[in-house]
Design brief:
Strand order of the largest sheet: 1-3-2-4-5
CATH topology: Glutaredoxin
Largest sheet: 5 strands, mixed
CATH architecture: 3-Layer(aba) Sandwich
Radius of gyration: 16 Å
Number of strands: 5
Number of domains: 1
Low-confidence stretches: none
Helix content: 25-40%
CATH superfamily: Glutaredoxin
Order of helices and strands: HEHEHEHEE
């Protein structure tokens, strides 16, 4: 039976990742991120919904991520919907725009910045 499941799929719904995202949708939230980062690190995941590489990186990140919200907050930015916020992030935190991209903010500054295949959820443990 598993052979047919592999070919035709399973009727069970796909298990959703256990990631608690805050959706970054306004410029004012960048000030919130700065304030939160004074107490605990904040990670921003910049994602392009039209890019298969970005989709793969996001899925892999969500499957590997296992840090509690009390220790690290995760923000999700849809680049196509909010390119202006992405540009503001690049200026504010002095990081070059990439997609997909993971940026860690501590004490109001970018302390870690990676993109594409270098995105690794396990690496975030070094910042908590």
């Amino acid at each position: 039976m598993s052979f047919f499941k592999n070919i035709f799929g399973d009727d069970k719904p796909e298990e959703l990742p256990k990631v608690h995202w805050y959706y970054l949708e306004s410029m004012a939230e960048l000030d919130d991120i700065d304030n939160i980062s004074m107490q605990k690190p904040v990670a921003i995941f910049k994602h392009s919904t039209r890019c298969s590489i970005s989709r793969f990186s996001l899925k892999q990140f969500e499957n590997e991520h296992n840090i509690e919200t009390e220790k690290l907050e995760l923000y999700f930015l849809d680049l196509l919907a909010h390119r202006d916020i992405s540009d503001a992030i690049a200026m504010r935190y002095q990081v070059q725009h990439q997609s997909p991209q993971l940026i860690v903010i501590k004490d109001g500054k970018a302390v870690y910045n990676v993109s594409h295949s270098d995105i690794d959820a396990e690496k975030l443990k070094e910042f908590v």
